[in-house]
């Protein structure tokens, strides 16, 4: 989910492991030469999701920690590609904790359907995250360091 700590945890984990760090939202913005919110405004949700899926499904990475946008979960080809090139980790955060962390969703470039609330988005995506996850780290009561330690234990690094 947006605000779960993918980028924050990912950067530190990459440093600890000596890996590269890839934020796919930045890769998309660089390729499209637009901010995520501009892509969503110009292309609509479905257009953005198609761009995101294509970029993620063709991402080349070796010895890297990849932090995809939360909506990457909707891209079947992207998720299959991620599973082929690495291990899919779900940073699980309670709805209450997530709601505390997030501010303006539109400003973050979050894909919301018309009339969809954060709770609706959380309920919809949580099922998909659990379906694809090979490792789940419950972030309840953990700071970034605690999340990284729990993740390193689970991946054996």
From TrEMBL:
SUPFAM superfamilies: P-loop containing nucleoside triphosphate hydrolases. Keywords: Amino-acid biosynthesis, Aromatic amino acid biosynthesis, ATP-binding, Cytoplasm, Kinase, Magnesium, Metal-binding, Nucleotide-binding, Transferase. The keyword Kinase applies. It comes from the Bacteria. ATP binds at residues 3-8, 108, 142. It is found in: Cytoplasm. GO terms for molecular function: kinase activity. Its EC number is 2.7.1.71. It catalyses: shikimate + ATP = 3-phosphoshikimate + ADP + H(+). Binds 1 Mg(2+) ion per subunit. Mg(2+) binds at residue 7. Pathway: Metabolic intermediate biosynthesis; chorismate biosynthesis; chorismate from D-erythrose 4-phosphate and phosphoenolpyruvate: step 5/7. Catalyzes the specific phosphorylation of the 3-hydroxyl group of shikimic acid using ATP as a cosubstrate. Belongs to the shikimate kinase family. This is Shikimate kinase. It comes from Fusicatenibacter saccharivorans. The gene is aroK.
